[in-house]
Amino acid sequence: MGDPDAATETLEGGQLDSEAEITLGLLNAVHENSALTQRSIASELGIALGLANAYLKRCVKKGLIKVSQVPANRYAYYLTPKGFAEKSRLTAEYLSSSFGFFRAARRQCTEAFAECGRQGWRNVALAGTGDLCEIATLCALEAPVTLAGVVDPAARAAARFAGLRVAASLSELGSVDAVLVTDLRAPQRTFEQMAAAFAPERVLVPRLLRVSRNGLNLAGE
């Protein structure tokens, strides 16, 4: 699960050992693959099968996950709207307090800009203000890209962040070759908004944001 030297992706050795982290890991796993088994969840999170079962039942009871029976006496697990909101909240909380956040963010932003360089995408927009956006602007100084500005739907007129223009929509920034998601508060939602307004393959996301490219997988409550 992730890169073991980046504390924002997993703890040392890939183990999760706190209630919030296990819950977040479980919600992420279900979001990525509804066909998970309890055994595969336990293996992915690095926890005992009994503990995985207990957390899964707790999430179902809280209305975060919905269970549906599928053929061959198997079960499919889906995030509910409440579960998706909780996943976003826990992700933001975890990222802001993680010891290795700056190191992982710097490395992954640098990798994203390097990929832009390889693809010939020179004019890059950032999506989301905050700590990750600020780190990205520093990484861009040594990368073969030019930052077009920052997209933030709540932007005020003439707003600026880290020396860049902040626009309410991507179209306001003019010609853009690629977008890097830097929103810590609601990265999945921001990714989907950017992918809907732009070519999805040109919307880059640092791995630490734990965004799924499989699209929303929500079941009604």
Structural summary, described in words:
It is a single chain. Helix content is 42%, strand content 16%. The chain is an alpha/beta fold. It has two domains: 12-97, Arc Repressor Mutant, subunit A; 101-209, Rossmann fold. A six-stranded mixed beta sheet has the order 5-6-4-3-7-8, sandwiched between helices. It has a two-stranded antiparallel ribbon with strand order 1-2. Helix 6 links the parallel strand 3 (123-127) and strand 4 (146-151). The longest helix is centred in the middle third of the chain and has 19 residues, at 101-119. It is elongated. Residues 1-17 and 216-221 have low confidence and may be disordered.
Q: Tell me the domain tally.
A: 2
Largest sheet: 6 strands, mixed
> What is the count of helical runs?
7
Tell me the fraction of residues in β-strands, as a range. Answer: 15-25%
Mean pLDDT across the residues is 83
In the CATH hierarchy, what is the superfamily of the largest domain?
NAD(P)-binding Rossmann-like Domain
Question: Which features would summarize this protein structure in a list?
Answer:
221 residues; 16% strand; 7 helices; Arc Repressor Mutant, subunit A; two-stranded antiparallel sheet; alpha/beta; 2 domains; 6-stranded mixed beta sheet; Rossmann fold; disordered N terminus; single chain
In brief, what are we looking at here?
With 221 residues, the chain is an alpha/beta fold. 42% of the residues lie in helices and 16% in strands.
Provide the fold topology.
Elements: H1 19-32, H2 38-45, H3 49-61, E1 65-70, E2 74-79, H4 81-97, H5 101-119, E3 123-127, H6 131-140, E4 146-151, E5 160-161, E6 164-167, E7 178-181, H7 187-197, E8 203-204
